[in-house]
């Protein structure tokens, strides 16, 4: 109990509630609901005004490029567009710059920070890709190993993810020189995003060989537009195996197929998905105790497998054109490898600045890019890969 100026006693809870109300009233009268950087609503208006008018001005400039490059209109029309709308927006932009010290500096500071983050990420990614290109394995090294690559070839398909569209990635040589075995069928898979909304299903895959036929090395480039939806892992595996099988069936010098030539004289065949190519090879997977290649005209049992019930993989081959014996053997080996399972080999790179680099480069690569790589999400296709079949191969990149 406390006493006031008149000598009357007051309870403690009433005293605390009275002081709390006075403090709340004084705080609401003396301060405003703004951030510490933008002290009043006027500063917030200046900051938002500069951000909005900058977006409008940049959009007008980009729209003029769309008129010329995408719509293929006359350049005079683009100049008139940017002069009319750009002059109006430039007046508002200059008026917002006058308020730079009164809050308009905040969006500029934020944009500078985001620009530095994007630059560090782009610089580190470019240096990593440059290291991959400079250290890719030559085809002569591969030919010197022989058909077995100098190691034991086990059953199954080894799917190596790489960003290279030609050549053999250094991660593959790093793997085979440290482990004594690899899969009987090796596929170098590259997933590329192309600057178009959609890629037609009949132009989804580019498939080719790496080395002679007996090596069983293939390259596959899967192309997606920026609005295409990636399929789940099971459907993608089916389309991938069917595209390789269709490439094997149509791999003839006299065949009328579309080819695309890469920088290292590698020729890739344009192959669609299994749903788009109705006249091509289709994959059938069911439960059985034997494996076979199925044709529309006949079924031939190749040989029995293990006695226990397992998944049977078979290719449904069209009647014409007839395929030769070498292609049948190659399809049989691909079918057996698919039955054994598919392993996804991902490269886990540690990017470090090489000796003799400048202090700025060491800060950007060793700290900035390394922090972004560890905290940013990986590529979208890596999220759908089953973890039970994934193998990460670590490698240090000195850029």
TrEMBL record:
Location of the K+ potassium transporter C-terminal domain: 156-398
Q: Name one GO molecular function term.
A: potassium ion transmembrane transporter activity
Per UniProt, the keywords (alphabetical) are: Ion transport, Membrane, Potassium, Potassium transport, Transmembrane, Transmembrane helix, Transport
Coarse class of the primary localization is: membrane
Task: Give every K+ potassium transporter integral membrane domain span.
Answer: 37-143
Q: Which InterPro entries match?
A: K+_transporter, K_trans_C, K_trans_N
Where does the sequence pass through the membrane?
49-69, 75-93, 105-124
Q: Name one Pfam family in it.
A: K_trans
Superkingdom, taxonomy of origin: Eukaryota
Can you say where in the cell this protein is located? Cell membrane
Membrane topology, as annotated, equals: Multi-pass membrane protein
Coiled coil region boundaries: none
Of the GO CC terms on this record, one is:
plasma membrane
The text of the family note is:
Belongs to the HAK/KUP transporter (TC 2.A.72.3) family.
The protein's name: Potassium transporter
**Biological source species:** Rubus argutus
- Lineage, please? Eukaryota, Viridiplantae, Streptophyta, Embryophyta, Tracheophyta
């Amino acid at each position: 109990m406390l006493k006031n100026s008149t000598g009357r006693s007051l309870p403690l809870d009433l005293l605390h509630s009275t002081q709390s109300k006075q403090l709340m009233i004084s705080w609401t009268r003396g301060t405003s609901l703004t951030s510490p950087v933008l002290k009043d609503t006027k500063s917030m208006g200046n900051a938002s005004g500069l951000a909005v008018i900058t977006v409008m001005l940049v959009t007008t400039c980009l729209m003029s490029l769309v008129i010329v490059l995408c719509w293929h209109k006359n350049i005079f029309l683009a100049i008139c567009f940017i002069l009319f709308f750009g002059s109006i927006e430039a007046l508002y932009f200059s008026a917002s710059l006058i308020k730079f010290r009164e809050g308009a500096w905040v969006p500029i500071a934020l944009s500078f920070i985001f620009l530095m983050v994007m630059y560090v990420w782009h610089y580190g990614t470019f240096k990593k890709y440059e290291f991959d290109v400079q250290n890719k394995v030559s085809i002569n090294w591969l030919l010197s190993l022989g058909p077995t690559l100098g190691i034991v070839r086990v059953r199954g398909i080894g799917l190596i993810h790489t960003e290279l569209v030609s050549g053999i990635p250094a991660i593959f040589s790093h793997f085979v020189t440290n482990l004594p075995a690899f899969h009987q069928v090796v596929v170098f898979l590259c997933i590329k995003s192309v600057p178009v909304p959609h890629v037609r299903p009949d132009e989804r895959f580019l498939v080719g060989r790496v080395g002679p036929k007996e090596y069983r090395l293939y390259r596959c480039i899967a192309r997606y537009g920026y609005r295409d939806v990636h399929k789940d892992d099971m459907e993608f595996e089916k389309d991938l195996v069917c595209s390789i099988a269709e490439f094997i069936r149509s791999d003839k010098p006299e065949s009328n197929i579309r080819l695309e030539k890469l920088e290292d004289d590698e020729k890739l065949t344009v192959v669609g998905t299994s749903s788009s190519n109705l006249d091509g090879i289709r994959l059938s997977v069911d439960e059985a105790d034997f494996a076979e290649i199925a044709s529309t005209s006949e079924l031939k049992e190749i040989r029995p497998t293990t006695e226990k019930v397992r998944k049977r993989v078979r290719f449904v081959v069209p009647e014409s054109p007839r395929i030769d014996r070498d292609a049948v053997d190659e399809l049989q080996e691909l079918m057996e490898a698919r039955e054994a399972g598919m392993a996804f080999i991902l490269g886990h790179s540690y990017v470090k600045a090489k000796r003799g680099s400048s202090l700025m480069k060491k800060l950007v690569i060793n700290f900035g890019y390394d922090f972004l790589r560890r905290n940013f999400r990986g590529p979208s296709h890596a999220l759908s890969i089953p973890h039970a079949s994934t193998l990460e191969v670590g490698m240090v990149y000195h850029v």
